[in-house]
Write a structure and sequence with these properties.
- It is a single chain.
- The chain is an alpha+beta fold.
- Among the domains are: 2-139 and 154-172, no CATH class; 538-702, no CATH class.
- It has 14 helices and 34 strands.
- It has a 32-stranded mixed sheet that branches. Strands 20-22 form a two-stranded parallel sheet.
- A hairpin with a 6-residue loop joins β25 (468-477) and β26.
- The relative contact order is 0.04.
């Protein structure tokens, strides 16, 4: 027993001696002797010149955070002063990084297990100059050498990085950016919750005020976990300069230390930045900073136009009126591809509200946008620029205007096909109400938007229009030039008095409009698309009124001239308007074009050439019964859309029998058009009756 005690005493004594020797060695050894070795090893490892110009010192101190007897054990603390990392020869600045001092501690007990644990690193007087040239060379890229040796039995773990103050400069030729970032310690640490409350109030009042209304922030909250509540803001920072050649000015706060390997310790961030006329404000936490896998922030965006967010987001967005949004942002950022989510966001664009969830994924051939969008009130003027609309002033500001030739009636303004090739999308969209003053009233819209490699599809597309519906699908292929468009739309039960609310004569009408349109063609404007379009147009309108005001409102100048020659300036009540036309390479030919009134049935045949905007139509009136009709000779319509020629065809008056024979020839197309008639809801349908009469008309040989 005494021998065992002696052995144990010797072991303890040896350990104490070793500890004393180690302590004395660390405290008394001239660590500056190792500077040449350290400089050479680090320079070889990072591929850049590394030097320690100052002294290396070591000291011992206890770690009070350790539990029990372990808190008595001293830890070595090393300090290296005046550290420099040089730049490549192509840079403008000689140094990539300069430090007044670098201090780190090592936990001694893990060394027994071949584990080097550095719980904290403190940087003092940090100065960083980041540069990238036009060839893509960046001085911050570090190419670590390939290690072909057996893996070391030693393991290195890093804890947190602290900073007292610092300056960071960025000169990036590729992104046309020059930024100066300054970091200074706060006089007093600010609790996380206090900064969140202040940032929320300020951002709602400042950023949200840009559209005159504050967006509701109750739906989005930053990280309020127990870990986040224990964090504090201890540093303030400022940024100024240019980004994408746009002025940048901002400020914010951050935590004192940055956890490198902890997946649970949050790092608090608060920022408000102006980039040109756009503003962004964030408040929240960042966890696992090596991967940004737990970005948890409330984010406000605002500005004069969504298009100006491109320098910030890298996403092509339409030109819009002033906007403001607020939502919850999370992200996973990786070199091969990243994922950004903007959830439960709400906001305004002009006078329109918008909200939903969006996700952007990068790393593929193009970034991809997915999610859902919804709106209670959407003003077409606010988002019309997405499809080339908007006011003339907006178009001039974004350079979208195309001069309209004097001899062309159809718009030649170009579609913006380049916007369809910058990204992919899979988004559902629903708007409860669309506001288009002085235009066709659209009650609601919902659609599925698919954009894949420059091909845009709206499928299915549903819209509530003028008390009825329009259903179908649209496809636009921007990968070919000119752009190819295909559409298949079906209009049902559109109420005439709602379609023309300003036409007094229509307000007593119970008529409806039904129709089918299938069309495909290639063109980068309305004029170009119609000039070579193929397709079919079927249209039925019953119990309506044709008036000078209506035709002028619809822009149908040619029809206005024809109606005045037939009926004068009086309003004409129509029982049915039936149209069935087929287009081939921009030339639409009439199979059936009948206007039925109480006095006459008017038949139109011929063709409309959208390629050169010429018309070649014959208009033949057929008097009903013994009623007197002022004009029984046919009319002709020739000339262009801009300069039409409408006149009376020379020759004898149309005989009643010949007129009946002409109507009998319409029996087959009339039968085909009956499929467009929607069964009336207990109401009389004049078009159905007219088409039935045409279908049952006797063949020409039996006309009496």
């Amino acid at each position: 027993m005494r021998l065992s005690l002696k052995i144990l005493a010797w072991i303890v004594g040896v350990l104490i001696v070793l500890v004393i020797v180690l302590v004395l060695f660390v405290a008394l050894f001239n660590w500056n002797r190792l500077k040449p070795t350290i400089d050479a090893k680090v320079s070889a490892a990072i591929g850049k010149p590394f030097t320690i110009d100052g002294d290396i010192t070591a000291a011992w101190s206890r770690e009070p955070s350790e539990p029990g007897l372990r808190s008595v054990l001293p830890w070595p603390t090393f300090t290296a002063r005046k550290i420099r990392i040089g730049n490549p020869t192509w840079t403008r600045q000689p140094q990539l990084l300069q430090l007044d001092a670098l201090t780190f501690r090592i936990s001694p007990l893990p060394l027994l297990l071949h584990h080097i644990y550095v719980p904290s690193v403190q940087l003092s007087g940090l100065q960083v100059d980041l540069e990238r040239d036009s060839k893509g060379q960046a001085n911050w890229n570090i190419n670590l050498p390939q290690d072909n040796h057996q893996p070391s039995s030693w393991k290195l773990s890093m804890g947190t990085i602290g900073l007292d103050k610092g300056e960071i400069a960025l000169d990036d030729v590729q992104t046309h950016s020059k930024l100066q970032i300054g970091i200074t310690p706060l006089q007093h640490a600010m609790p996380y919750e206090q900064v969140v409350a202040q940032a929320t109030s300020t951002s709602r009042a400042d950023v949200g005020h840009d559209v005159g209304r504050m967006v509701d922030s109750n739906q989005t909250t930053p990280d309020v976990s127990s870990h986040a509540r224990r964090t504090a803001y201890q540093f303030a920072w400022t940024v100024n300069g240019t980004y994408q050649d746009t002025p940048v000015d901002g400020s914010g706060k951050s935590g004192a230390v940055l956890a490198l390997e902890s997946a649970t310790q949050p790092f608090p961030i608060q920022a408000r930045v102006h980039i040109g006329t756009s503003k962004i404000a964030v408040v929240g936490t960042l966890t696992d900073p090596m991967h940004l896998s737990a970005l948890n922030m409330r984010v406000w965006f605002a500005g004069a136009s969504m298009a100006k967010l491109y320098p910030i987001l890298g996403i092509t967005l339409p030109d819009t009126p002033p906007f403001a949004t607020e939502g919850h942002l999370s992200a996973e950022v990786h070199m091969q591809g990243s994922r950004y989510s903007y959830r439960n966001f709400r906001g305004r664009v002009g006078e329109s509200d918008i909200g939903g969830n969006l996700q952007v994924v990068t790393g593929g051939p193009r970034m991809k946008l997915t999610g859902d969008l919804h709106s209670q009130l959407l003003r077409f003027a606010d988002l019309g620029a997405l499809v080339g609309g908007g006011s003339q002033t907006q178009k001039e500001q974004r350079g979208d205007t195309t001069p309209q030739p004097g001899n062309k009636a159809l718009p030649v303004e170009q579609f913006h096909t380049n916007r369809l090739q910058t990204m992919d999308a899979d988004v559902t969209f629903e708007a409860a109400r669309i506001e288009r003053p002085n235009s066709l009233p659209i009650n609601a819209v919902n659609t599925h938007i698919l954009l894949d490699n420059g091909v845009l599809k709206l499928d299915p597309l549903h819209a509530g229009v003028a008390g009825g519906t329009i259903d179908g699908n649209v496809q636009m292929d921007s990968t070919v030039q000119p752009m190819r468009t295909a559409l298949d739309l079906h209009a049902r039960r559109l109420q005439l008095k709602q379609m023309f609310p300003t036409v007094q004569s229509m307000q007593n009408s119970f008529g409806e409009l039904n129709g089918d349109i299938t069309m495909n063609g290639a063109g980068s404007s309305v004029s170009g698309l119609l000039s070579n379009a193929d397709g079919d147009v079927k249209l039925l309108m019953d119990n309506g009124v044709i008036s000078k005001t209506l035709l002028e409102l619809a822009g149908l100048n040619v029809a206005n001239v024809v109606v005045r020659k037939l009926f004068g300036d009086q309003d004409v009540k129509i029982n049915c308007l039936a149209v069935d036309m087929t287009g081939k390479e921009g030339v639409f030919t009439s199979h059936l074009f009948v206007l039925d009134t109480s006095d006459a049935t008017i038949n139109v045949d011929g063709s409309i050439n959208f390629h050169d905007e010429h018309m070649d139509l014959n208009i033949v009136p057929h008097t009903k019964g013994l009623r007197v009709f002022s004009l029984r000779s046919p009319l002709y319509v020739k000339g262009t859309f801009k300069d039409p020629d409408v006149g009376v065809k020379p020759g004898p008056l149309i005989l009643r029998g010949a007129g009946a024979a002409a109507l009998a020839a319409l029996a087959a197309p009339a039968a085909a058009l009956l499929a467009v008639v929607v069964p009336s809801r207990g109401q009389h349908n004049d078009c159905q009756q007219v088409l039935m009469q045409l279908r049952n008309a006797p063949p020409p040989g039996k006309v009496k």
